[in-house]
């Protein structure tokens, strides 16, 4: 969600003759921002959705879908967690947890697509000699935050799936309780019942 909202997917590069650092340009999925050296920042939301490049449109769609799927995965995993009583322990509860982990893995893969797409465009434009140096960009902080989120989603989803698969069915080992000890005729408990 943070990577989706940040306007720092691409930031201006200061190379060659473009050494004027009085302003920095940030480009994101939802807006462009110009940051002055004085600390002033002006942001402008994109006017038209249809006029946006395809990578921005796909990035918007995929990051919003991932945010919603992540919330669904959280709810599914909580319902199937061992510490909740929404569903009785057993195979069904384990399957629900595995489904939640699989949704987390799907989220990680889906959010990786726009991140790598943007990184590829930024890198190819940076090394393209036909692109003027004033229009060259570098990868912004949102890409790195997105990659960290991807790693956490993939790792967490795999961990949830693996831990849930490795657990045996709890109903296969029923707990056996012994009958409570009765006091003797004199009202005291037998001393052999104490540990």
Describe the structure.
Residues 173-195 are annotated as: Disordered. Belongs to the claudin family. Claudins function as major constituents of the tight junction complexes that regulate the permeability of epithelia. This protein is of the alpha+beta class and 195 residues long. It has a domain at 49-165: Butyryl-CoA Dehydrogenase, subunit A, domain 3. Helices cover 48% and strands 11% of the residues. It has helices at 2-5, 54-80, 91-127, 141-166, and strands at 10-12, 23-27, 31-36, 41-45, 137-139. The chain has a five-stranded antiparallel sheet with strand order 4-3-2-1-5. A hairpin with a 4-residue loop joins strand 3 and strand 4 (41-45). Helix 2 (54-80) packs antiparallel against helix 3 (91-127) and helix 3 (91-127) runs antiparallel to helix 4. It starts with a helix and ends in a 29-residue tail after the last helix. Residues 168-172 have low confidence and may be disordered.
Summarize this entry quickly.
The protein is built from four helices and five strands; from the N terminus they run αββββααβα.
Please count the beta strands (DSSP E, at least 2 residues each). Answer: 5
In the predicted model, the low-confidence regions spanning at least 5 consecutive residues are: 168-172
* CATH secondary-structure class of the domain at 49-165: Mainly Alpha
Strand content: 5-15%
Radius of gyration: 28 Å
Largest sheet, spatial ordering of strands: 4-3-2-1-5
CATH topology of the domain at 49-165: Butyryl-CoA Dehydrogenase, subunit A, domain 3
CA-based shape: elongated
- Counted by DSSP, the helix tally is 4
What is the distance, rounded to the nearest whole angstrom, between the alpha carbons of the first and last residues?
56 Å
Which CATH architecture of the domain at 49-165 would you pick?
A: Up-down Bundle
Oligomer: single chain
Topology as a string of helices (H) and strands (E):
HEEEEHHEH
Given the helix and strand composition, which structural class is it? alpha+beta
Main sheet attributes: strand count, strand direction, barrel closure: 5 strands, antiparallel
- Average pLDDT confidence is 82
Helix content: 40-55%
Pfam family, one: PMP22_Claudin
Transmembrane segments: 61-84, 96-123, 143-163
Keywords: Cell junction, Cell membrane, Membrane, Tight junction, Transmembrane, Transmembrane helix
Membrane topology: Multi-pass membrane protein
């Amino acid at each position: 969600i943070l990577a989706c909202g940040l306007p720092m997917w691409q930031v201006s590069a200061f190379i060659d003759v473009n050494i004027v650092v009085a302003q920095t340009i940030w480009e994101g999925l939802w807006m462009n921002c110009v940051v002055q050296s004085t600390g002033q920042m002006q942001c402008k939301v994109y006017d038209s959705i249809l006029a946006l490049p395809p990578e921005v449109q796909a990035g918007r769609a995929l990051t919003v879908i991932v945010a919603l799927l992540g919330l669904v995965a959280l709810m599914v995993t909580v319902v199937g967690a061992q510490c909740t009583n929404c569903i009785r322990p057993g195979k069904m509860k384990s399957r629900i947890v595995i489904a939640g982990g699989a949704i987390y893995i799907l989220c990680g893969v889906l959010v990786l697509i726009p991140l790598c797409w943007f990184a590829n465009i930024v890198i190819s434009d940076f090394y393209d000699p036909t692109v003027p140096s004033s229009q060259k960009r570098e990868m912004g902080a949102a890409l790195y935050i997105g990659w960290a989120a991807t790693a956490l989603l993939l790792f967490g989803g795999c961990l949830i799936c693996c831990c849930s698969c490795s657990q045996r069915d709890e109903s296969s080992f029923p707990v056996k309780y012994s009958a409570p000890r009765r006091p003797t005729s004199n009202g005291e408990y037998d001393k052999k019942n104490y540990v």
